[in-house]
Design brief:
By secondary structure, the chain is α+β, with helices and mostly antiparallel strands. Helices cover 29% and strands 23% of the residues. Helix 2 packs antiparallel against helix 3 and helix 5 crosses helix 8. The protein binds 2,5-anhydro-1,6-di-O-phosphono-D-mannitol (AHM) and magnesium ion. The site of magnesium ion (MG) has 4 residues, from strand 5.
Length: 339
Amino acid sequence: MVSITTLDEFIIRNQYEFPYSTGELSRLLRDIGFAAKIVHREVNKAGLVAEILGKTGQINIQGEEVRKLDSYANERFLTALEHGGECAGVASEENEDFIAFSDENSRNSKYVIAIDPLDGSSNIDVNVSVGTIFSIYRRTSKMFSPCLKEDFLQPGKAQTAAGYIIYGSSTMLVYTTGHGVNGFTLDPSIGEFCLSHPSIKIPSHGNIFSVNYYNYSKFSDRVKAYLDHCRDGENSSSLSLRYVGSMVADIHRNLLRGGIFLYPKTSDSPNGKLRLLYECNPMAFIVEQAGGASSSGTERTLDIQPTELHQRAPIYIGSYNMVSKFLNFLKDTKEPEEE
Ligand code: AHM
Ligand code: MG
């Protein structure tokens, strides 16, 4: 009989990675896995149950229309994290301010979470993959009291753990605690995430570049030069453009196959679109742990000191050699990237 390792078993077995572990992080990861199964259930019946498709009519802090499933996923994760009592608070893409949980267990927790509960949700109504992205930090404020904003405003290199769930042709949870990256596929027949992709390594070079080409005219000359090189330069015939428009799906594919994902600044969005705390940083931690690289074009993503919860940052992330080549393009062309 084939032996199966479930997410819960794996987490417990690897608790030794943390010498003074109290099991709190393990339980927190299990709470996230539990909420992910509930969101998976709803995402999977989105085509059948008309009331869960479409928009709520509200606009979130990002100025974007909130979809019903955005709101549902946000509630599910917040509820699971609050009831689990293993984290002191959450900063979510869907909430203007962070939420400090008030019950005693939560206040006593040493962790806080930044989360995008349903990333790429504009794709949901047309049955395209979406995801959840999360980042876990040790709080810097003192325990036994409500967490503070400063707990969330730590550079990505301070992350304790990060992960994503992709609701795709199958549902997968991929995470790192700083000791490599492991992927688990949900087996719906037993309701468990099972280890399917141990020790994921991103190929150092791939043949995929992922960018919203529609924005080309708004990119800096240096980014345009790189994209022109991808399209017409030496070896361009071996490259393919693949862009889903769901960051989780685009990065998951590139993580397994090799490639680079770019979301540059544009003339009308000087910091790009993607959010540092709950999109760029967790993905950068995972990709670096898999052997890849991530940069804002001027510094390593994980070194950026955040100043706001919903701060945006340009991101160039993926296979190590492809990101290095891109960064060389930024250096080599004449016009400075930061002007
Ligand atoms: P969201 O968090 O509102 O869903 O937006 C984030 C998404 C990412 O998943 C994706 O990479 C990007 O937006 C796509 O943006 P664009 O449509 O500008 O290419
Ligand atoms: Mg998002």
